[in-house]
């Protein structure tokens, strides 16, 4: 395998792993065959990997360059572990704590106006418009809406993409609240290997809030963008004989150069999250996968084990590697809504959740230029709307979402496989829909 | 990557996946560094993959040719999913049904004489002599002995190697008992793709009992042995550009040529089990992983999800790919001991278990020439001792074991990482130990 083929092969891996392309303000990459509707691109309808064995033209292999290109991506989002190495996030031997379910038949008909205009749309119409694979709405902890499509059902698992970051941030802020990590400490004092890198003189706080100044581009149109090197570093696949680059996520982080100053502007760059993963591992002696399992997953009444994709060192991809069941993602939202408790158990100090919900530096956020997210901020790898309900989100490419509305006491967890990675493509038919359902639920008992 | 490098890289994968090298009667391959004792080769002591990140000389990567060579193998047996793609075996959302535990302090001192002579040894001494990673003894369903070492603990998972075959066989015999599969049917009537292969005119029964006549060598000393082609076929790794061979387990099976006649002699060849996996999938519309989860794993009170390694089509490796917690392997033993029930629930028809326990054709077995297993037989991919207790076993390379003794009402589940793959290396200090503990337990209440 040549080096060029090796590198190009990672276009897919990058997408797969949910690197930030799509959460970036400008670059919204349309993908091939994007004109297919949700129904037309249904992976069950297209027959990907169906049959024993599947017919040759229905096979999706990790080594295919298009395994994560739309419409194949609509199968792949539910099957990452069948394609690459992973590490588990155990829920432990106990029973799941099932949600109470009282489906509200009125939700499908709720109407909203998409951002940027266009005709009104119903919640039900938005489901397919956003290529939704599954959505759960909790109101006061009760499931009032739940629907699956595509490759997903209630027992399946789906890539959380960059929603993973918010869990890394939650663990980080939890450790700050517990005094394990000093968020004013410089990164080099915790991970000396990063002393010569841009992260060395950044504080943990700057890493958590992504206000570091880093020479790091995730522009896929640029063949010299650093994201290519990072993706190759994180690959679990064999290296070509002429490969000279870093061989793990962390090895890459050591090479990152500074650009600008830390602490002045928000810039969404995945490598901050993996640096935070390294800080957490060094301080606790546990990977983010293990810490998440011990502190949260095994204590929140989860229905399924989760898992992370890993690099060739077995390091879980803190920036985008989590896969889980949808209801368990809703449990994370409920944990956030309840200020760190769930099922009457405290898992995370309230101060940690309060700090996240309070949000970050709005002026620093504004510099990133997200046209659809005016007035928002970013804190501990969560997106804070600062709307009247104090809503906040975890967001991942292709539409992965945890949306928490404290005033409406509502949590929405969504997995999807929108053909366009960038959430700018689905925000217009998602964010106002969430607000409309929140308003509706506030009229309900 | 050159083709020769690609092929040689699979030496490790073969070992990893538990192909039959070692369960073969003659070829017992010593591996490098085998002179290290269990204590000396303890993976925690050697520090494999310890630290964030591990030091370079402690890293084990899937792409290293020696990742499954002793002593690295003692780490790898617990971490297969971190190295390669897998598919899950879910235990479902319920609570595990914990074992009652009444540890019998007398067991460690039980003495036995190893096969082939040598001085008497205690059960406790045999633990390290066999490079045991974990062992659980159940008596009348109660845990009377449980001990872990190496990479394993009660919450960890370990490769079951060819013990996997016995689960494939159990599923197969279950489907026969239920009338879903006719074991007298010729394989070609169920999987027409195999018509031109050696399997075409074999019966399901011959496949289940491995009395097929196949041109298939698992002799690693022979570079032209078919096992190399099979292993390359099952690899999840990218193919070299000059690779022309089969690209999945099942694609390989279509190429197997006949040698001798079916139904005359037992010959332990892993490809029978993957053929059985194909038959099961075709008949049920479910992979062995899914069927195992639905019919057994989610209903037996399991403590952990299991998983299978998969090929590049996502096909679970029915011949050797299962990984699971040790206590859950003990539950499989208990299910067999109780004739298909566990925790008062029937999971498998009693007739299926009865047929397995009755054993296969002793004369056909004798032709395979296993010096240590005289008088045994092989039925439904279980090894039947035909001893006075009617004991029967699931056996996998490097010492993986489920041992069921109906008279003593005893189940032993063992995971280990013996430096020698072939069980002929550990049988002398294992089989008489099992018998000795059985005799001891029969004197207990």
TrEMBL record, chains A, B:
Presence of keyword Magnesium: no
Domain of life: Bacteria
Signal peptide coordinates: 1-30
Domain spans labelled Beta-lactamase-related: 135-421
InterPro entries xrefs: Beta-lactam-related, Beta-lactam/transpept-like, Diverse_Enzym_Activities
Keywords, in A-Z order: Signal
Name of the protein in question: Beta-lactamase-related domain-containing protein
Source species taxonomy: Bacteria, Pseudomonadati, Pseudomonadota, Gammaproteobacteria, Lysobacterales
């Amino acid at each position: 395998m040549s080096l060029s083929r090796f590198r190009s092969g990672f276009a897919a891996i990058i997408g797969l792993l949910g690197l930030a392309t799509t959460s970036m303000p400008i670059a919204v990459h349309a993908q091939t065959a994007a004109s297919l509707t949700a129904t037309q691109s249904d992976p069950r309808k297209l027959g990907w990997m169906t049959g024993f064995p599947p017919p040759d033209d229905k096979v999706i292999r990790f080594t295919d360059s298009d395994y994560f290109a739309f419409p194949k991506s609509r199968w792949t989002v539910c099957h990452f572990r069948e394609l690459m190495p992973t590490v588990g996030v155990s829920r432990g031997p106990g029973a799941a704590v099932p949600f109470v379910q009282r489906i509200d038949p009125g939700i499908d008909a709720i109407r909203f106006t998409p951002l940027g205009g266009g005709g009104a749309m119903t919640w039900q119409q938005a489901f397919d418009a956003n290529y939704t694979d599954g959505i759960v709405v909790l109101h006061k902890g009760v499931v009032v809406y739940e629907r699956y499509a595509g490759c997903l059902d209630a027992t399946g698992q789906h890539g959380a993409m960059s929603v993973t970051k918010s869990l890394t941030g939650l663990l980080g802020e939890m450790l700050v609240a517990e005094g394990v990590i000093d968020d004013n400490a410089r990164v080099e004092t915790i991970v000396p290997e990063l002393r010569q890198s841009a992260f060395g003189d950044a504080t943990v706080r700057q890493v958590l809030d992504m206000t570091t100044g880093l020479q790091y581009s995730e522009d896929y149109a640029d063949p010299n963008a650093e994201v290519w090197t990072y993706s190759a570093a994180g690959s679990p696949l064999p290296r070509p004989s002429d490969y000279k680059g870093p061989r793990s996520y962390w090895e890459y982080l050591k090479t990152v150069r500074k650009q600008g100053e830390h602490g002045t502007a928000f810039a969404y760059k995945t490598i901050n999250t993996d640096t935070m993963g390294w800080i957490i591992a060094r301080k606790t002696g546990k990977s983010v996968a293990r810490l998440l399992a011990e502190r949260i997953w095994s204590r929140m009444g989860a229905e399924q084990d989760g898992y992370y994709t890993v690099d060739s060192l077995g390091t879980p991809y803190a920036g985008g590697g989590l896969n889980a069941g949808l209801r368990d993602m809703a449990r994370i939202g409920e944990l956030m809504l309840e200020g760190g408790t769930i099922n009457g158990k405290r898992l995370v100090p309230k101060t940690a959740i309060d700090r996240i919900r309070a949000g970050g530096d709005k002026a620093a956020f504004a510099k990133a230029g997200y046209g659809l997210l005016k007035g928002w901020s970013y804190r501990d790898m969560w997106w804070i709307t600062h709307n009247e309900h104090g809503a906040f989100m975890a967001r991942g490419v292709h539409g992965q979402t945890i949306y928490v509305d404290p005033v409406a006491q509502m949590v929405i967890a969504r997995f999807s496989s929108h053909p366009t990675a960038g959430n700018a493509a689905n925000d217009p038919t998602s964010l106002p829909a969430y607000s409309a359902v929140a308003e509706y639920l506030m009229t309900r008992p």
